Amino acid sequence: MKLLYVLVLLALCRSATGSIEGMKKLCSDLFGNYSTKIRPVYNQSQHVDVHSRFNLVAITEVDQVRQILHSNVWMNLTWRDEFLTWNPEDYSGIKSIHPPLTDIWRPKLNVPVSVEDRDVFKDETSSITVNSDGRVTWLPGANFVTDCKLDLTLFPFDVQTCQFRFLPVSYDSNKLKMVSSRVSADTQGYTENGEWGVSASRAYTTERTFEDTTFSFLYVDIDLERRPMFFVLNVIIPVVVLSFLNIFVFLLPCDCGEKVSYAITCLLSLTVFMSIVSEILPKSSDNIPMVTLYLTCLLGISVLSVVATIFIVMKDPSKVNKKIPQSPLFVIPRFCSLPGSRRRIMDQVQLDCKTDGSAGNGNGIGKVLEGQSISVGYCVTADSLCMVIFTVLWMVVSVGFLVKTTQ
Predict the structure, then answer these.
(1) Residue 176 is inside which H or E element, if any?
(2) Residue 212: left if φ>0, alpha if ψ -120 to 50, beta else—which one?
(3) Which pLDDT band, with edges at 50, 70 and 90, does 164 fall under?
């Protein structure tokens, strides 16, 4: 039994020694006359095909004001190096090696849409594998900071498309061509973002000519769909509720001291929400968001309601101590006045009559009733008419916004 253990140990030691010697001999034979400055093909008139696969790891941030996308990406690049082939049987069965990145030819990729350093694949610790048939696999990764043009017209129910471009510098399409291994980005290892979700992606290659030189480009388009629930709950719904409450200013009586204050408070509240929205949107006039137009319309309605309230209070006959002539508009309170309003008018009139000591004089009561009815009738008529008008405006603007953003 002990003899068997000794034989197995000797075989393992011999195999390890053979592998080390074989690895030394293989590296000496492969890299003895190897040059990283020469494209890895014997016929230099042929081009090198670089097969690529785009792997999206995470969307870390979408800067809407600066229109910049922060993402974590790693690539899978594969090509064939005709100078790095061997027979595994001649080198102790070694089928693959992992040489240093600086000892092997690699395609240098440039990212034209990067807002920082365009040479993003500078990490010298990324993995690279060379197989015995000459197939080389390089797995570089980087944190991208790229330009992304945003169209916020349908904000916050928008879908944005951000594009990545990869250009092999120093080599035109006759020397190096990019080939997409997949028709879309690989999102198997993608980490979900709380604000954005990846709805679709496309990966393709194309050739573009610059000053009589044609280059092969790799394009990757990522469709980002916004998750609007946070913005809806924190901005849209409060704005709709506040703008709806603004209409109820016309239910307050003219002699109420808080009538104008209530309208101004609603106006200031809408102004605060509009400033919050403006801080998270880009300062651009190319595509004006529908939510900005919606808030502007609500702000305009609120301003008009404040102006109308001031005029109603200012023109109140009881305030200016004069009577107004009868008008056809005074028929509106008969249909639009709230329940109990007529009873409150009569109670107020009777109370005023008793105070003046004219309770037993029918003519006095008639005169007071006539003056009070004109004053109260004016306020109820103006408030009712304004409430109908502003309610219709609010419904038209709100329904139009919802239809436009959710279609």
Answers:
(1) strand 176-180
(2) left
(3) very high
